[in-house]
């Protein structure tokens, strides 16, 4: 069924359409607890009234820090119904100091959470399952918000200063994503989607709204299942998942487990990869096994351009080509991707710039950075606003292929992180003069390593103390995926003959 989207309709309004169409159909499920579309609608009304009663009239954003579960989805819908936008801060990924840093960065005054948190100048609303246990007038009645904010959410990405930056995305950005994607995929109301990723990772936007906007079912994957590949494969089979979304790193592990099984995950219709550079050679076993039963796609995009701006269908033909290339595919309808060369002109190789219906207006409270990253260029006589991704690519036969990064930003385990941001936090320690952080890919799994150069030579006893203090500092101010797995003190950061950091030499020291 081809779903019709009205770009002027908000996300919760599209959801309401499905409530009327499928009131008794299960909308979300987690650990055996199910909610129908009608129940999800009523329970999110409770949150909407709570938010409205505690929201200052001119406030656009509400923080959301909750564990993965049905209450999280209920709260997202409730915030939107109240006319506000949600800012997700995953408590399992972020220490309390990082949460405080994120809240202060965007001056948040209201936080919905499932735990007791005491943060100065921030009002918290504690939401648990018993919040919705008894029917209330608020659960039945709809809500008329003070003012409907045009933004749906703002997701934090890391920055070179170590300070997170929030990317606000509008309702019509997300609606356009699904309107244009349904020209590529034939999603329908019978699909069962997984919510595998953190709701603070923009991949979750694709997972959550892919199900709820199209009348499908969202199966929330618990952390325990997500971390156990064998259990996760059984989950996919038992829950009859039809749409699976994965970062390549996670999917490579699933492929290994799946290869030990003769049977297939029969229900799968689509597997959509995103968040990292692809290694086509590692996909070969899956492509060969599932060629006749499910379709494998690679997606490319950024938080700043609303999750995905291009897709590439991967099949056996791609395995006969240069498998060292990482394909980005072609831009989806409504998006434009151009390469800008060293002469600042459109080229067949260069930095990737993106414009179109998914483009954000810019980072919250970052005017100087917006001037550098969100720029206007004249293309074919028209002024077009682009996001400068920092990704390098080249064009071949009408498709784009990844060449790496133009700066220190890297993809690590599905997250987009700034190495300089981690280095900045580490160098805030008074005894650390320099810090070099990089990704080591020489093992079966990538590692994030940090090398420290102290101001003065230190004794073995002092070295142990400094490393402990630096590790505690990183863990208190950085999300878990940005904390290096190893910290090492060396007398001097080695350099190449050209005066650049000698990463090869550092690797030999690890």
Automatic annotation (TrEMBL):
Identify one Pfam family in the record. Answer: AMP-binding
Query: What's the domain of life for this entry?
Result: Bacteria
Query: InterPro entries in the record, alphabetically?
Result: AA_adenyl_dom, AMP-bd_C, AMP-bd_C_sf, AMP-dep_synth/lig_dom, ANL_N_sf
Where in the numbering of this chain does the AMP-binding enzyme C-terminal domain appear?
Answer: 422-500
Give the AMP-dependent synthetase/ligase domain ranges.
Answer: 16-364
What Gene3D superfamilies has UniProt attached to this entry? 3.30.300.30, N-terminal domain of ligase-like
Record PANTHER family: NONRIBOSOMAL PEPTIDE SYNTHETASE, PLIPASTATIN SYNTHASE SUBUNIT B
What NCBIfam families does its record include?
A: AA-adenyl-dom (TIGR01733)
Q: What is this protein called?
A: Amino acid adenylation domain-containing protein
């Amino acid at each position: 069924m081809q779903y019709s989207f009205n770009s002027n309709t908000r996300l919760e309004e599209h959801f309401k359409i499905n409530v009327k169409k499928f009131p008794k159909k299960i909308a979300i499920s987690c650990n055996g607890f199910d909610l129908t579309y009608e129940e999800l609608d009523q329970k999110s009304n409770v949150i909407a009234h709570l938010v409205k009663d505690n929201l200052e009239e001119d406030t656009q954003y509400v923080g959301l820090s909750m564990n993965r579960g049905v209450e999280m989805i209920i709260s997202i819908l409730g915030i939107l119904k109240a006319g506000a936008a949600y800012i997700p801060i995953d408590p399992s990924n972020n220490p309390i100091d990082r949460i405080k840093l994120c809240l202060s960065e965007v001056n948040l005054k209201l936080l919905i959470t499932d735990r007791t948190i005491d943060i100065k100048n921030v009002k918290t609303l504690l939401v648990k399952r018993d919040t919705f246990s008894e029917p209330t007038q608020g659960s039945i009645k709809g809500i008329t918000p003070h003012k409907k904010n045009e933004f749906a959410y703002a997701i934090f990405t890391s920055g070179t200063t170590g300070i997170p930056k929030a990317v606000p995305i509008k309702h019509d950005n997300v609606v356009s994503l699904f309107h244009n994607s349904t020209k590529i995929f034939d999603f329908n109301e019978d699909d069962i989607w997984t919510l595998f990723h953190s709701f603070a990772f923009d991949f979750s936007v694709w997972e959550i709204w892919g199900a709820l906007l199209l009348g499908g079912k969202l199966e929330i994957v618990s952390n325990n299942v997500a971390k156990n590949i064998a259990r996760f494969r059984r989950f996919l089979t038992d829950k009859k998942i039809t749409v699976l979304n994965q970062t390549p790193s996670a999917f490579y592990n699933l492929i290994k487990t799946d290869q030990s099984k003769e049977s297939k995950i029969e229900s799968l219709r689509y597997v959509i990869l995103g968040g990292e550079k692809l290694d086509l050679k590692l996909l070969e076993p899956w492509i060969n096994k599932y060629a006749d039963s499910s379709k494998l796609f690679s997606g490319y995009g950024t938080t700043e351009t609303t999750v995905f701006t291009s897709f590439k269908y991967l099949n056996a033909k791609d395995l006969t080509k240069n498998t060292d290339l990482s394909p980005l595919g072609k831009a989806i309808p409504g998006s434009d991707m151009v390469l800008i060369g060293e002469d600042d002109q459109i080229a067949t190789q260069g930095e990737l710039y993106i414009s179109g219906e998914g483009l954000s207006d810019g980072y919250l409270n970052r005017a100087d950075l917006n001037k550098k990253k969100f720029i206007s260029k004249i293309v074919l006589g028209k002024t077009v606003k682009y996001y400068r991704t920092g990704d390098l690519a080249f064009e071949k036969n009408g498709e784009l292929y990844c060449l790496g990064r133009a700066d220190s930003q890297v993809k690590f385990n599905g997250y987009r992180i700034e190495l300089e941001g981690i280095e900045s936090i580490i160098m805030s320690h008074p005894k650390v003069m320099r810090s070099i952080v990089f990704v080591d890919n020489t093992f079966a799994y990538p590692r994030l390593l940090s090398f420290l150069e102290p101001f003065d030579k230190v004794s073995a006893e002092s070295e142990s103390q400094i490393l402990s203090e630096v590790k505690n500092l990183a863990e208190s101010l950085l999300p878990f995926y940005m904390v290096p797995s190893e910290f090492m003190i060396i007398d001097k950061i080695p350099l190449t003959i050209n005066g650049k950091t000698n990463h090869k030499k550092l690797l030999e020291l690890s």
